[in-house]
Amino acid sequence: MTTHGGNAANRSGGxxxxxxxxxxxxxxxxxxxTEFQAQGRxxxxxxxxxxxxxxxxxxxxxxxxxxxxxxxxxxxxLGQGDALGVWVATYAVGVALxxxxxVLGRIGHTRWAMMVTCIGVALAxxxxxxxxx
Length: 133
What we know:
This protein is mostly helical.
């Protein structure tokens, strides 16, 4: 059956419209448009939530890895008999910033988590330089 004005009403065979509602002559174009537009939104919203969860997990994991690495480096260097010095402080600050980055990543502040974690990595790199050996 031919429809006029883009309004898909009065189809034969008892077909249903969007959302499983039967089409009738009283279904307006605006209602059909609203139902059609609502179909894709839930998928987009769920995809956005999934990407945000993945980002939070990635940043938290990276920050946790930095914190654990700094702790391991402290233990290894102390185990080798290195004297206490500035390197311990830089590693300790790296551990603290890695832990803070982990918390920030878990609560969703991913930009701050990345910034804090990068500063922790930079400090650990300074602490591992030959100047502090």
